[in-house]
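Sanity check

After download, print the first record. It should look like this:
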Amino acid sequence: MTILSAVFPVPPDGAPDTLDGIPLLASTVFNRLLRKGRLHHLHLLVAVAELGSVHRAAEQLGMGQPAATRAVADLEAALGVELFERHARGMRPTHACRDILPLLRSILATASECASALAASAAGASGMLRLGAISPATTGILAPALPAFLFSQPQLRLDVVEDKRPALQAGFADGLYDAILVRRPPEIAGGTVFLPLLSDRIVVVASPRHSLWQQRGETREVALLAAEWAVPPLDSETHVAFEAYFDRLGAFPQKVRTITRSFALLLPMLQASAVVAMLPQQLVQTWIADGSLAIVSVPAEHALPPLGIQYAEQPRKQGLASLVEFLRRRYEAAKPVPGDVR
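Expected structure tokens:
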């Protein structure tokens, strides 16, 4: 009820929406949506809003245009709310429609997750876990551990989403994830546990073929100022370390080749000896270990919190309890991140 009250706010002039002179209450809208609304209606509304055209939306969803036009009109009539403005070039979502679009997408995403869970169950899976992880946790924790874990749990299905920490923590708080693999947060939310698994640190890396290897000590730091850099995004924790490092050197690199959060884009640039980058070591440890990247420097100006898994204090799924215990055993004897400056 509270959500629908926010979805259909009263107009700016203070007069409530009405249908045949009767104030349109959130409870009324909710009951009409339960009676008249179907998932394909919601899918159609999102498609029309995104494409700006009933014709294109119907084509995308495999519907006839007359049926799609009638479905939108019937839903607007049933709800008593205008969802689209009609104009010569198509349809434009109203304020009410724009307000509910994020919620509609969330409903469709949840329905998709339900379908995935049912399909997994029909295929013999005994449970499903949805995990969220930041990139260093994916490469540092999950990639080495999951093959053995999944081998030991043949009937368990994992759904892993990689995202930034704030989005993962918000999703975890909303129940979207069973657990998240992130850095230790400043405060642990009530009712949850954070299990530290791996230490991490900021490193400067480059290809072993980079010309930097001709320099040593302070001469190498001077060479870093002249090198071409791939710079971390401004809103990243690594960028804070980047600025602190060069603030100590008293100057900043003049050759910034790219600014990116995409490691898939950055890795081939590093391997081609085109650029130097500052990154969390757990993100690149696999390539350091195989010799395709090497550590140029280890800035001491910025410490990284450990990587670990955050989960509910009382896990509701047996599969989650098994995963936590598996990771605990695997990493309880984990040593500080390996790799020395070459």
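If your output differs, re-run the checksum step. Summary of this record's structure: DSSP finds 13 helices and 14 strands in the chain.
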